[in-house]
Amino acid sequence: MAQQTATAGKHIVSLKANLLVFGALLALLALTLVAAQLDLGPLNGAIALAIAAAKALLIILYFMHVRFSGRLAWVFAAAGFVWLAIMVGLTMADYVSRGWFGLLPAPLG
Amino acid sequence: MSETRGLVAHHFDDAEQQHMSSYLGMWIFLATEVMFLGGLFAAFAVYRYSYAEAFREASRHLYASLGALNTAVLLCSSLTMALAVRAAALGRRGWLVGLLAATMLLGLGFLGIKATEYYLDFQEHLVPLRGFGFAYEGADPRRAQLFFDFYFAMTGLHALHMLIAIGWVGVVALLAWRGRFSAAYSTPVEVAGLFWHFVDIVWVFLFPVLYLVG
Asked: Considering only CB atoms, which chain B residues are within 8 Å of A107?
């Protein structure tokens, strides 16, 4: 009982799960290198970023234990990334659309 | 319960609440790091979009193979760190110290490869600092210089984070060596692990963004 109380709230990830996540991370690294060799036009960047996001998600959920730490941990872990997405999203929306319809000169032309 | 009481500070109800406070507190700090480094990523996105051609061409001057190798080294270090946290939670002191040492060694390996890369960049006159003789043969040297500004600022800041992470893990390894952690209390190992994994994640994004845009 004492042991159980002491380790409460601490999820121990199995050795097998750790190794599987590591294998998946290496596979994703290989995938991103292969994808970079192909000429897919504007898709190249999107694919590379999607693979990086998948890697980050694996690390956050398993290596950083967010998956096993309750809903509050999900909120804390997501907060920074959500705000970053808003910042990058709105900034790029501005820069990408400003030249449209000839209303305003494109910035940094 | 009596076994763990001495390990719980008086302002916490129990060990679980104490552990969760450290865990969530570290995530708040990491959120500030996301915003801090994210600002650089956002600025890079703007110029990568606006100066697409010059940035693509400049990116081809980087050593993508060394960048990929460094990604693999950091992923290995994240595995050893995750296993160290596991060893700590299981109270296996020998494994804990060994895995923390392995993590530090991989971190130092990363910095060594990064330093080699910086040296090669220097030899090719790609360091955009006064006195380093920046000289670029491509079509648009001024915009290319901006790319290298971003490259050195972002990877330099990341390398600084690596140095801090190595030092932090070193302190934790020393404490582990002295037997300060047990299956009942290993939160400092886990919190150091959070920082280590975060620094790894930053590189996971830096690698495609800087090296693979070409």
From this structure: 50
Q: Which amino acid is at B144?
A: A
Taking each continuous run of H as one helix and of E as one strand, the counts in chain B are 7, 0
Question: Above 70 in pLDDT, residue A76?
Answer: yes
Q: Is the ipTM of this complex over 0.90?
A: yes
CA of B152 vs chain A CAs: smallest distance (Å):
20
Tens digit of pLDDT for each residue in B160-214? 999 999 999 999 999 999 999 999 999 999 999 999 999 999 999 999 999 997 6
Q: What is the DSSP string of A13-81?
A: --HHHHHHHHHHHHHHHHHHHHHHHS--TTHHHHHHHHHHHHHHHHIIIIIT-GGGS-HHHHHHHHHHH
List the single best residue of B79, B81, B147, B190 to mutate versus A (max A Cβ within 10 A): B79
**Which residues in chain A have Cβ-Cβ distances shorter than 8 Å to B1?**
1-2, 5
**Predicted confidence (pLDDT) per residue in B62-71, tens digit:** 999 999 999 9
Token pair, residue B114, equals: 């990064």
Q: State whether A108 and B89 contact (CB < 8 Å).
A: no
Residue B61: helix, strand or coil by DSSP? coil
B chain contacts of residue A10, beta-carbon cutoff 8 Å:
19, 89, 186, 190
Distance from the A36 Cα atom to the nearest Cα atom in chain B, whole angstroms: 6
DSSP at A102: G
Can you tell me which residue has the tokens 């915003």? B35
Residue labelled with tokens 């495609």: B208
C-beta separation of B158 from B206 below 8 A:
yes
